[in-house]
Amino acid sequence: MEFRGEYDYIVVGAGSAGCVVAARLSESGRYRVLLLEAGGEDTGFWVNMPMGTPKLFSDPRVNWMFDSEPLPELGGRTTFLSQGKMLGGSGSINGMVYIRGNSRDYDHWQQRGCEGWGYDELIPYFRKSEDQSRGADRYHGTGGPLKISDHQQTHPLADALIAAGVEAGLPHNADFNGPQQDGIGYFQTNTYKGRRWSTSRGFLRPARQRPNLDIETYAHASKVIVVDGKACGIEYQSPSGKRFAHAHREVVLCAGVFGSPKLLLLSGIGPSEHLRDMGVPVVHDAPSVGGNLHDHFYAQLIFKCLQPVTLNDVARSWWRQLTAGIQYVALRRGLLASNGIYAGAFVRTDPSFERPDLQINLNNWSATRTRSGMVPHTFSAFSFSTVHLRPEGRGTVRLKTPDPMVAPAITFNFLATEYDRTAMIRGVRIVRNIVGQGALKPFVGDEIQPGCGEISDEAIESFLRQRGSANLHSVGSCRMGSDSEAVVDPRLRVNGIRSLRVADASIMPVVVAGNTNAATIMIAEKAADMILKDAITA
User: Fold this and answer.
1) Do the Cβ atoms of 479 and 286 come closer than 8 Å?
2) pLDDT tens digits for range 460-502
3) Which helix (H) or strand (E) holds 220?
4) Do 269 and 286 contact (CB within 8 A), yes or no?
5) pLDDT at residue number 370
6) What is the longest distance spanned by two Cα atoms in the chain?
7) Are residues 237 and 222 in contact, defined by beta-carbon separation less than 8 angstroms?
8) How many helices (H) and strands (E) does the chain have?
9) Which residues are CB-neighbours of 484 under 8 A, at least 6 positions away?
10) What pLDDT sits at residue 422?
């Protein structure tokens, strides 16, 4: 096994979190940092172009291409789990919607024993990352590495949706990351001048010339080296063979909601019975590793469009494709400079709830989404995603074999409770109510999915079980908390193992109400700050 070298910190995974952690730890020049990434570089036309996401959705060169185990609640179906496998991780292939979640999400974390993770204490980390196109205020920052922008152009469908939502009784909301989350309006995105702006581009690229930061791609971590209860290095597979590197101070896992628990399990840190079943020597019995897995559940309602303003219309016309391509290449503008998710809403499926539990996204397209890719329909259409923000069901991440190159066994528990089912059924009805308002009538044709005949609760639930899936916002598999069952403590240190932390979406005790990328970046900012402060006092 080849020795890679001595470092102060080793960061595993160069996704949305890992790029931030590595950049911040190397910023002062005081510490030597190694960043390992299982995928390659985040270069390429489709990566940089906001509308390139469908091209990356099923490309195994840049996507882990995970599948869940068969899920009984969904009739034995699996659900495809797209995850980025290159610098920037899922932030290099995702939809780029910038949503932090609800302020009460973080206060709830704190109430569950995650001291220091209340909203008021986290705002400075959100602001630190941001370069907000609207300028700085109490909620937003400027001058940070992450570009946050409004859509370059409005869209007639989005304008009509917002007007229809107001007609249906929703308040207009110009800033979902401001003082109020409820309402309907345009989303912001982490894009800049018609280009995707991931943490690889914003944080890592400026840091790459630092002599104290080494970045190794195509480096697949296989084991945390633990000696006498202390993490002191990483074993990994490289194109030239097996390697290991030594960490004087800490190993930081940023391998994501599936990768971080998998690496802990491969290292003998996890439920002892499962480890023995897999033939992995038990280093530390940690029953909660890989537990608490959950995701937003979602389903799409699809409507034919009466006007040729959707991306489906572009996809089925060669001259529209040519026009859009020229406009993007020449000016970085037009439909291809957008993520196609212009606007949406946050609503409560029950008026008595203290905060929204449903997100509605307008997609300026409709497509068949499978493991083989996203194929646009051959007719003019658009869709609404109904996304349940507060699921109660919990699943697991487990090893299939002790081979580190084999994908983990991923199990969800969607629609497991009465509330999970009721919220989604009400979500379908809320979308239909908005679609029925006058402002959208010039655009709305036939309901294709689930179909206007599916009106009873039983019919809608059947549709959800047949068509619903994970919303690619999985969290929780290395849960943070102050209790003995938590995987990491509020300083993100792995309980029972010294000098080992986890800093990614897996540490969320409960998923936030919205897209998870912004929250993951915040977690990384706070993690890096805590690591550097602990280094001073050590």
Assistant:
1) no
2) 999 999 999 999 999 999 999 999 999 999 999 999 999 999 9
3) strand 220-227
4) yes
5) 67
6) 69
7) yes
8) 15, 26
9) 495
10) 97
Tens-digit pLDDT profile for residues 183-210: 999 999 999 999 999 999 999 999 999 9
Q: Are 478 and 502 within 8 A, CB to CB?
A: yes
SS3 461: helix
Determine the average pLDDT of the residues in 287-311.
Answer: 96
Query: Looking at residue 202, what DSSP letter applies?
Result: I
The C-alpha atoms of residue 75 and residue 234 are separated, in whole angstroms, by 40
* 390 burial level (CB within 10 Å; 0-12, 13-18, 19+): buried
Which pLDDT score, from 0 to 100, does residue 318 have? 84
Tokens of 126: 């959100």
Using DSSP's 3-state secondary structure scheme, residue 86 falls into strand
Both structure tokens of 361: 């996204």
pLDDT digits (tens, 9 = 90+) for 50-60: 998 888 988 99
Instruction: State the Cα–Cα distance between residues 90 and 500, nearest whole angstrom.
Output: 23
> Do residues 524 and 200 touch, judged by C-beta distance below 8 A?
no
Instruction: Summarize pLDDT for 408-459 with one digit per residue, the tens.
Output: 999 999 999 999 999 999 999 999 999 999 999 999 999 999 998 788 999 9
Closest CA to 445 of 300, 301, 302, 306: 306
Do residues 176 and 102 make contact, with C-beta atoms less than 8 angstroms apart? no
Query: What average pLDDT does range 213-220 have in this prediction?
Result: 98
User: Which helix or strand (DSSP H or E) is residue 148 part of?
Assistant: strand 146-148
- Tell me the catalytic residues: 473
Task: Copy the structure tokens of residue 282.
Answer: 């038990």
pLDDT score of 62: 95
- Name the packing angle between helices 119-129 and 517-537 (round to 10°): 100
Distance between CA atoms of 268 and 178, rounded to whole angstroms?
43
How many other β-carbons are positioned within 10 Å of the β-carbon of residue 374?
A: 16
* Neighbour-count burial of 452, counting CB atoms closer than 10 A to its CB (0-12 exposed, 13-18 middle, 19+ buried): exposed
Element housing 121 (H / E): helix 119-129
Q: Could you tell me the two tokens for 523?
A: 């977690």
Strand partners of residue 195? 192
From CA 56, how far away is CA 35, in angstroms rounded? 23
Query: Angle formed by the axes of helices 418-435 and 457-467, to 10°?
Result: 100
Which residue is listed with tokens 């009400």?
426
Phi, psi for 55 (deg, rounded to 5) = -70, -25
In whole angstroms, what is the distance from residue 64 CA to residue 119 CA?
32
- For 524, phi then psi, to 5°, come to -65, -40
pLDDT digits 0-9 by tens, 325-337: 888 888 888 888 8
Question: Residue 49 corresponds to which tokens in the numbers above?
Answer: 């172009």
Q: What is the pLDDT of residue 1?
A: 84
- The C-alpha atoms of residue 194 and residue 110 are separated, in whole angstroms, by 37
Give the C-alpha separation, 125 to 198, whole Å.
Answer: 17
Give the C-alpha separation, 153 to 338, whole Å: 9
* CA dist list (Å): 339 to 93, 149, 425: 11, 12, 27
